[in-house]
Structure formats: structure tokens, C-alpha cells
Amino acid sequence: MLDEKKILLLDRGFQRIFATPITRMTFRQLQNIIYTVFDGDQEKSVKLLESLLTGEAQDKLGKDLKKLIEKYSLDVAMAKEVQERGDFMAMLTSDLLPHTNQAIFSNRVKRVDGEEFHFITDFSSVFRLIDHFIGRVEEVKDRDQSQKIVAGYSKELEALKKRLDSLI
Length: 168
Hints:
- The protein is an alpha+beta fold.
- It has seven helices and three strands; from the N terminus they run H-H-H-H-E-E-E-H-H-H.
- Strand 1 and strand 2 (104-111) form a beta hairpin.
- Helix 1 runs parallel beside helix 4 and helix 2 runs antiparallel to helix 4.
């Protein structure tokens, strides 16, 4: 599929790309390097990219190319996820901070692309957030084409209802 020189070009190109943080442009950079190494052959480029995304060779490959796929598969998959879902929330944490007369929460949100946000809430702010997001779920449910989405979370909604009932 590829000679040793082209595999070396891919390896060096990937090293250069992954020496910096993964951004929304990273996946496009990978596509460009692969396309260039394959002299514009889209079929071969797509096969290699699929191999890198799945971690499995699409065709019989030499051991050097298999090593390249093993070495970069996880990074390439992460680059694809950041390109597609970079703004989506990956993690949310909250800590209860000691405060004299009220509950104060230190909240951190991490996006898929690695960006982090920090904000402070008090108890009334938490209720405003809960109210806001329940309103958003109701809005989704009221749309004809989106009712299936909410129905798919019926178990989770029931669990939330039980938790809220136990607080009342």
C-alpha cells in the first residue's frame, strides 16, 4: 500500500500535528497530510483514515503501516471527536464551598475540546439552572420531531423525579 518513505512522511506529519493541542482543525490537517502522501488518491486516503479511526487495518498492510495505525489511532479518533463535538460538555463537577450562611457551589465544565469554564452558584442559582433546563426539555418534548428524544430518556426522567420527590 505504501512504501517506507511515505510511511515516514506520514509519521513525521502526524508527530508535528500532535505536538500541539488537538483543535477543530486537527482532523482536517490529518486529512490533508494523508491526501498529499497518497498523491490525491481519495480511495486510498479514505481507507487509511478509516483504519486510523477504527484502529484496524482495512486491507492487508505492511507491519510499518500497522505500527503507524496503532501509534496514532487514539489521537486521530480524538481529533475527529473534537471536530464533530468540540463544544459539547464532556464533564461537569461541583464542589460545595464552606460559607457562613448559605450553600455556595464551585462549578467546572469541561468541553470535549478541552476548554474549561468555572462559575460560582448559590442555592437560588442552582434552582434557576434546574428550572431553565427543565424548560428546555419541555421545549424539546413539544416539538413533533423531537418527542422521541425525550421518550428515550423516560427512565432517567423517572429517576430524577424520585430524587426530587425525596427532597420535598
